């Protein structure tokens, strides 16, 4: 009776060891290369206090997300009003996932999609 239990336990141990060895020795199938960089484009229309409050609220939502959900947010500002650019740059300094970029810069980043 004890020999039967030892035989079953030994077989299970060998099966688990073989599975672990197979998992360690099998090549990864390039999963790291297949993952996408998850970004969002957020146009910033003005530099009003309500826009700043919205960006801070949005930043608090992004901060708790997993990086697989969202890695960075491009704050896209128009070239002309300097206040909007200054707001976007301030927000990008305050939050590491915000990146301030002009409309022309966003077009270069995104390419033909914009």
Strand content: 5-15%
pLDDT averaged over residues: 77
Uncertain runs are: none
* Coarse shape: rod-shaped
Query: Separation of termini?
Result: 73 Å
Note the main sheet: 3 strands, parallel
Helix content: 55-70%
Strand order of the largest sheet: 1-2-3
What is the ordering of alpha helices and beta strands?
HHEHEHEH
Q: Please report the number of helical segments.
A: 5
Q: What would you report as the Rg, rounded to the nearest angstrom?
A: 25 Å
Question: What's the total count of β strands?
Answer: 3
Alpha-beta classification: alpha/beta
Describe the structure.
With 114 residues, the protein is of the alpha/beta class. Helices cover 56% and strands 14% of the residues. It is built from five helices and three strands, in the order ααβαβαβα. Strands 1-2-3 form a three-stranded parallel beta sheet. Strand 1, helix 3 and strand 2 form a beta-alpha-beta unit. The longest helix has 24 residues. The N and C termini lie far apart (73 Å).
Layout of secondary structure:
Elements: H1 2-25, H2 31-34, E1 39-43, H3 49-63, E2 72-77, H4 82-94, E3 98-102, H5 103-110
Comma- or semicolon-separated keywords:
56% helix, 3 strands, 14% strand
Brief rundown of the structure:
This protein is an alpha/beta fold.
